[in-house]
Design brief:
Layout: E1 9-13, H1 25-39, E2 43-47, E3 63-65, H2 71-81, E4 85-87, H3 92-104, H4 107-110, E5 114-115, H5 120-127, H6 129-138, E6 146-149, H7 152-162, E7 166-170, E8 180-182, H8 185-198, E9 204-208, E10 214-222, E11 228-236, E12 249-251, H9 258-275, E13 280-288, E14 295-301, H10 306-315, H11 319-327, E15 354-360, E16 381-387, H12 390-400, H13 430-439, H14 444-451, H15 455-465, H16 475-483, H17 488-495, H18 499-508, E17 514-517, E18 531-535, E19 549-553, H19 564-579, E20 583-588, E21 603-606, H20 611-621, E22 625-627, H21 633-644, E23 649-650, H22 654-661, H23 663-673, E24 680-683, H24 686-696, E25 700-704, E26 714-716, H25 719-733, E27 738-742, E28 748-757, E29 761-769, E30 782-784, H26 791-807, E31 811-821, E32 824-831, H27 838-845, H28 849-857, E33 875-881, E34 902-908, H29 911-921, E35 931-935, H30 941-953, E36 957-960, H31 962-970, E37 976-977, H32 988-993, E38 999-1002, H33 1010-1022, E39 1026-1028, H34 1031-1045, H35 1054-1058
Parallel strand pairs: 1-2, 1-4, 2-3, 4-5, 18-21, 19-20, 19-22, 20-21, 22-23, 35-36, 35-38, 36-37, 38-39
Antiparallel strand pairs: 6-9, 7-8, 7-9, 10-11, 10-13, 11-12, 12-15, 13-14, 15-16, 17-18, 24-27, 25-26, 25-27, 28-29, 28-31, 29-30, 30-33, 31-32, 33-34
Helix pairs in contact: 1-10, 1-11, 5-6, 7-8, 13-15, 14-15, 17-18, 19-28, 24-25, 29-34, 30-34
Length: 1059
């Protein structure tokens, strides 16, 4: 059956901002679906609030709405665009949840809109765990013992029936939010309360504990004619009890017998048919008891999932694209396989290699977390690697993580010893502890007993740990080590030699990697789309390009401080270079992103971004140039070594990037250009630091050099604080010194992006931070155009930007952060590379700056590029999104260290309406009436008066602690006093817990109030209450409330804005 002719336009719902549990894998699947359906002639309408993804570029859909994913916004878009159908399966849980609400509110019926790819009945059956259980019972597929409750009383009765330990899973949540394991009645009560609150329908599933059971996933795809295939089986190395997003996973499954595999396969297909997934991709999860072999089904997702992205990258089978085509009427036997060009999509993929995914965690950003993994997801990104064996693939994955590991073994410089006594607790680096345990004589049986990791995996890990890297060097021995995934650096460190010596030995003896293609069919047919990985075998399947070629180095795994924005820049670079006739090669190891889709670059190498792995590819491909300025910090880490090996790095010279990082050298540049900067110093010891801070005068900003996301960065107010933080920063920096700056209190901050061809400079935009100086630029809301910048100061910023770009010989992008205090402009930081704000400014100006930067890097001049700007008279607000709901004990006050995982955009005529949209997009509740609690520090007291008076006039009830309450009353503002935590009961935290507070305005009051603020923040996160921690944020929120109350939010597509 060909495509449906009764549908002309389709509304695709995106996933919104990057959060823990829903990262850029949905932008990858959404982009793929939009491109496929648009190519098939459908008009694509897209709603997504995330400016950082390529999906929201104007050319991906026909009508792109950078708007919050809310009922109101979607209904307004439906009125304007009149879509025939909605595709809700490529936007993660966000899209499914809002689709259900559209149905419940009668909006689908009202506008006669059909759902494609999933029906309401199927979504309900799969998402509602009770209905899912009933469906499985009907067809005889066993599930875990347990049931649903919506009160603590019912929960206690069920706990009594099943017995501890118990798994608690809230219904309709994302990334396992609110999920937990209870081992006793006391924990259980607390966790049930959290779970009921986390569930939008106030319901939790209580199940028998499956701790220690093996966990598997099947990626299944089905068409309307009931053709169905298993795309990929995935096995979790960690047993049940760890969220699958936090577990190290392997594809294909390694320890299933054929009988077990066939049973899972049959149950998966039965499950899809019973739930009613008529077309598209689904993910089905299973658990197997290793003692008895009892197999049960855990859950299924009736949509493209996190594992779908992994399965797509692991097999080369584009699940999201195929699912989108099936949703509009095609069948699997009608859709060609893009990689082989000979087989059809109904041809079940088979692979002759092993894929390993390892999650990336950022626990150091959240010191309140204990680092133990559970059923609630906590990882912020992941890497994937491909090898001929599990051992080779695992080692490549560990060195892809960029956490200081060179393979499967502990860091040599680790100051803290690994605590093997806690090996029974799943943690981010439990496998590394297992390596140490083998070295200390533990047996496989002992480790299985403690970890419940399957003995097959433990045996593989033991083979790596037992490998002697000190034998006398010969060709066979070196080949064996490389086939087992050992890096040159691992071997060199073990032998106390330099990495270059190992590399030289390999090259001299022609021990070099061969490259294989990912072809979906275990080499039965030839791959037409070169998507490759390295291994050490005889045959090389890759023939280097003869045309002019440029290699782009990607950004590696997502983490806080380096996310999807850099992937966006890499993709734009590919588009720009292809336009000029170059062949492009992408090197990256992140399975979640669009840059690692098989049809973006002309050739994709799924490899670690280490010097060794990148250099191996360069030696084979001999590209004309290598671009390093788009992948964040990752490519910069190896830039100097590439240069030393005569690699032609195009664009800005890495020495200029170094110059901007080196305080002393950069200080000379500023002096030469007569550009002011806050006083600073470089300390190599604590004594240095104390001396410098005393010269500069407190408060000072302390930070390590060469880091992203403000890692280890703090504002310190005295010598004691300085000593503590220098010690911490030194750990982050390694051999690099510590930077100390004067901190400009109450200054306005600006972010400036610009592009230069080495002779001329074009300013992309000056963005103003809403929060004052002292909050990391990635965590601050920012506004374009700047809302409080005198014309004279603007001119100075523009001139300084141009002078610095030329002086640093910038060829490509440059980002500069400025501060303005008492109308004087200071340079805070300069980065001559792609920045986090490039996608944001590109979207709101409709100018592809990253694409142009790539073209400038190969010789284009700015005068040859189209910088025509349309005056839209619109204001854009970029707002960060934080993962505090995953770390409920974390201090919620913002600091120079970045903590946000993603961002949203608000785009409208006024600052208030743009800020309102951004707040809605970030998932915040904006109360339009009710009780507001206010507590501010002395320096904010003057400013809070105007805000409080406005709230009072808008009929909000104000509650405040003693000092603030007295000030407000004295100034004629109605206000009720409430106790601080230590003053008496009921106090402010009691009021929050009793749902008596709708919004909190609380600016940090210093050490003595830390406890109060911490308790308020914790309670507010749990009760999903809006907390504002800066005066500027409160002022912006007031503007937003006014605009919402006067119904002044407009929803317009980018195409309309820029037509």
């Amino acid at each position: 059956m060909p495509k449906r002719e009764d549908i002309n336009s389709i509304l695709v719902i995106g996933a919104g901002p990057i959060i823990i549990g829903q990262a850029c894998e949905f932008d990858y699947s959404g982009t793929q679906a939009c491109r496929a359906l648009k190519k098939d002639g459908f008009k694509i309408i897209l709603i997504n609030s995330n400016p950082a993804t390529i999906m929201t570029d104007k050319n991906i859909a026909d009508a792109t709405y950078l708007e919050p994913i809310t009922l109101n916004a979607i209904e307004e878009i439906i009125k304007t665009e009149k879509p025939d159908a909605i595709l809700p399966t490529v936007g993660g849980q966000t899209a499914l949840d809002i689709t259900l609400r559209l149905y419940q509110n009668g909006i689908l019926d009202k506008y006669n809109i059909e759902l494609i790819g999933a029906n309401i009945d199927a979504i309900k059956k799969a998402e509602n765990r009770e209905k899912f259980k009933l469906c499985m019972d009907q067809i005889g597929i066993p599930t875990a013992k347990g049931g649903f409750v919506n009160t603590i009383q019912k929960a206690l009765v069920m706990a009594d029936e099943i017995g501890f330990p118990l798994i608690i899973r809230p219904s309709f949540t994302l990334g396992g939010t609110g999920g937990s394991t209870a081992y006793n009645i006391e924990e259980f009560k607390k966790q049930i309360e959290m779970g009921l609150r986390a569930s939008p329908i106030n319901e939790v599933l209580i199940e028998e504990s499956l701790l220690g059971w093996k966990e598997f996933e099947m990626e299944v795809i089905r068409d309307k004619n009931d053709n169905a295939i298993i795309v990929c089986s995935i096995e979790n190395i960690d047993p049940m009890g760890v969220h699958t997003g936090d577990s190290i996973t392997v594809a294909p499954a390694q320890t299933l017998s054929d009988k077990e595999f066939q049973k899972m396969r049959n149950w998966s297909l039965q499950c899809l048919r019973t739930i009613g997934v008529d077309t598209g991709g689904s993910n089905v999860q299973f658990a197997v008891n290793p003692k008895t072999g009892r197999m049960i089904i855990i859950e299924m997702n009736p949509r493209v999932s996190r594992s779908s992205a992994l399965a797509s990258k692991a097999t080369g089978f584009p699940i999201a694209k195929i699912a989108a085509k099936l949703a509009v009427g095609f069948t699997l036997d009608e859709i060609p396989n893009d990689i082989t060009k000979e087989t059809m999509a109904s041809f079940e993929p088979s692979i002759d290699y092993t894929v390993v995914k390892i999650p990336r965690f950022d626990f150091e950003k959240f010191p309140s977390s204990n680092g133990i993994l559970g059923v609630q997801m906590q990882s912020v990104g992941e890497v994937m690697s491909i090898g001929r064996t599990f051992r080779e693939s695992l080692q490549k994955a560990f060195r892809s993580l960029e956490v200081g590991l060179n393979g499967f073994q502990p860091k040599i410089t680790d100051t803290r010893p690994l605590d093997i006594s806690k090996i029974g607790f799943p943690s981010a680096f439990r496998l590394i502890k297992i390596w140490k345990a083998f070295k200390e004589g533990y047996s496989i049986d002992q480790l299985f007993d403690k970890t419940k990791i399957d003995p097959w995996f433990l045996n593989q890990l033991k083979l790596i740990a037992d490998t002697n890297l000190n034998d006398s060097m010969n060709n066979n021995y070196m080949t064996y080590l490389k086939q087992n995934g050992f890096s040159d650096l691992q071997i060199a460190n073990a032998r106390n030699e330099k990495e270059s010596k190992i590399r030289d030995f390999r090259l001299k003896n022609n021990i070099i990697p061969t490259y294989k293609m990912v072809d979906t069919c275990a080499a039965e047919f030839q791959a037409k789309t070169p998507y490759c990985y390295s291994t050490y075998e005889e045959e090389n399947e890759i023939i280097p390009f003869t045309e002019k070629t440029i290699m782009i180095l990607g950004g590696g795994p997502n983490r806080i401080g380096q996310g999807i924005e850099f992937d966006y820049c890499c993709i734009q670079a590919v588009f720009g270079l292809k336009e000029l006739g170059f062949k492009t090669i992408m090197v990256n190891c992140n399975p979640e992103t669009v840059s690692t889709d098989f049809d973006i670059a002309d050739r994709l190498y799924f490899e670690p971004l280490t010097f060794e792995d990148v250099m191996n590819i360069i030696n084979l491909e001999k590209p004309e140039g290598v671009l390093i300025q788009f992948g964040g910090q990752t490519p910069l880490n190896i830039a100097n070594r590439l240069l030393a090996n005569k690699v032609n790095i195009i664009g800005t010279d890495p020495h200029s990037i170094d110059l901007a990082e080196n305080r002393k050298k950069f200080g000379k540049v500023l002096k030469k250009l007569n550009i002011p900067a806050p006083k600073y110093g470089t300390a190599f010891s604590i004594q240095d630091a104390i001396q410098i801070a005393n010269d500069i005068k407190y408060p000072v900003l302390v930070r390590p050099s060469y880091v992203l996301g403000g890692r280890g960065m703090e504002i310190v107010y005295d010598e004691e604080g300085l000593k503590m933080f220098v010690a911490k920063a030194a750990l982050v920096s390694g051999e690099h010194p510590i930077l100390i700056d004067a901190f400009l209190e109450n200054a306005y901050e600006f972010d400036v992006d610009a592009i230069s061809d080495g002779e001329n400079v074009k300013i992309a935009g000056i963005m103003q931070h809403i929060e004052e100086a002292g909050i990391h630029s990635g965590d601050s809301s920012c506004v374009y155009p700047a809302y409080n910048l005198p014309l004279k100061a603007k001119k100075i910023i523009e001139n300084y930007t141009k002078d610095l770009a030329i002086e640093l010989k910038t060829v490509g992008l440059i980002n500069i952060q400025f501060a303005m205090k008492n109308n004087k402009i200071y340079v805070i930081e300069v980065n001559p590379r792609a920045s986090r704000t490039i996608p944001f400014i590109s979207k709101i100006k409709d100018i592809p700056y990253a694409k142009y930067a790539a073209q400038v890097s190969v010789g284009k001049k700015l005068s040859e590029l189209d910088f025509i700007e349309k005056n839209t008279n619109l204001i854009a607000v970029k707002k960060p999104v934080f993962p505090f709901n995953k770390f409920p004990d974390q201090n919620i006050f913002l600091s120079p260290e970045m903590k946000s995982t993603g961002e949203v955009i608000g785009f409208d005529k006024h600052l208030g309406s743009a800020y309102a949209k951004a707040s809605y997009g970030a998932g915040e509740k904006i109360p339009l009436s009710g009780n507001v609690f206010i507590s501010v520090n002395d320096s904010d007291k003057e400013n809070i008066l105007k805000i409080s008076r406005d709230l009072d006039e808008m009929n909000y009830n104000i509650l405040a602690t003693k000092g603030t309450a007295e000030l407000l009353s004295e100034n004629g503002i109605n206000c009720n006093q409430v106790y601080k935590v230590g003053e008496g009961r009921p106090n402010i935290v009691d009021a929050i817990k009793n749902n008596e507070i709708n919004m909190v305005i609380n600016t940090p009051l210093g050490a003595q109030s830390r406890f109060d603020e911490y308790e308020i923040g914790k309670a507010a996160i749990k009760h999903k209450i809006q907390v504002i921690t800066t005066i500027a944020g409160a002022t912006a929120m007031l503007r937003a409330i006014r605009m919402i109350k006067s119904n002044k939010l407009n929803y317009t597509s980018l195409q309309k804005i820029f037509e």
